[in-house]
Design a protein that fits this description.
mainly alpha
C-alpha cells in the first residue's frame, strides 16, 4: 500500500471543490440574513444549563435546504450528512463531529411550520439566488437499497387451474 503524500489530502479536497455545487451555494447565499427570522423559535429560555446545547438555527435551516434540494426524508438527511463530505462542508461540520439526528431535524421543521415561517424563509432563499441570476433546481439522490422479494411457488395443479380460468375468460396463454 502506498504511503500518502504530504499534500494528497489537500489536493483531493481541491478537486472536490471544483465540482461541488454546495460550495457555490454557500458563496451565493448570505446565511446570516436568516438568523433574525430563525431565532424566533428559540425565544423560550432554558430552564437549566444541563444537557447539550441546541444546534445552531442557521445550520438547521441549511439542513432543510439540503432536504429540499435533494428530496430527502429526515432519516435520509441524517444518513447523507454522516456519509457525504460535501454535506458536512456545506453545513460547517466535521466528519467526526456530532450531526443532527432525524428527530431533531423533524422537530426543527415543525417549529418553523407552527410559526408559519417556512414559506418566508424559502422565499427569501429563492430571492437571494434569483438576485444573483441563479435558480435552485431540485435533485434527487437515488436510494439503491436491495430488498428480498418473496418467491411464490404454485404447485403444478394450481398453475394448470389458473391457466384454465384464463382460457375460460377468453385470455390467451
Amino acid at each position: 500500500m502506498l504511503q500518502s503524500g504530504f499534500f494528497d489530502l489537500d489536493n483531493r479536497y481541491r478537486k472536490l471543490d471544483e465540482r461541488d455545487p454546495l460550495i457555490s451555494l454557500n458563496r451565493l447565499v448570505d446565511w446570516e440574513h436568516f438568523r433574525s427570522t430563525l431565532t424566533v423559535i428559540r425565544k423560550k429560555s432554558r430552564k437549566s444549563r444541563a444537557g447539550r446545547k441546541p444546534y445552531d438555527v442557521v445550520l438547521m435551516f441549511k439542513v432543510l435546504v439540503l432536504q429540499h434540494l435533494y428530496n430527502l426524508s429526515d432519516d435520509e438527511a441524517q444518513y447523507q450528512i454522516r456519509d457525504r463530505y460535501s454535506f458536512c462542508r456545506f453545513l460547517g461540520l466535521t466528519p467526526e463531529g456530532k450531526i443532527p439526528d432525524a428527530k431533531t431535524i423533524g422537530l426543527f421543521r415543525e417549529q418553523l411550520v407552527e410559526r408559519d415561517l417556512m414559506r418566508t424563509l424559502f422565499d427569501d432563499f429563492d430571492e437571494q439566488l434569483n438576485a444573483q441570476g441563479y435558480k435552485a433546481r431540485k435533485g434527487q439522490i437515488v436510494d439503491a437499497s436491495f430488498v428480498d422479494v418473496p418467491k411464490q411457488r404454485n404447485p403444478r395443479a394450481e398453475n394448470e387451474q389458473t391457466k384454465g380460468y384464463r382460457c375460460a375468460l377468453g385470455e390467451e396463454e
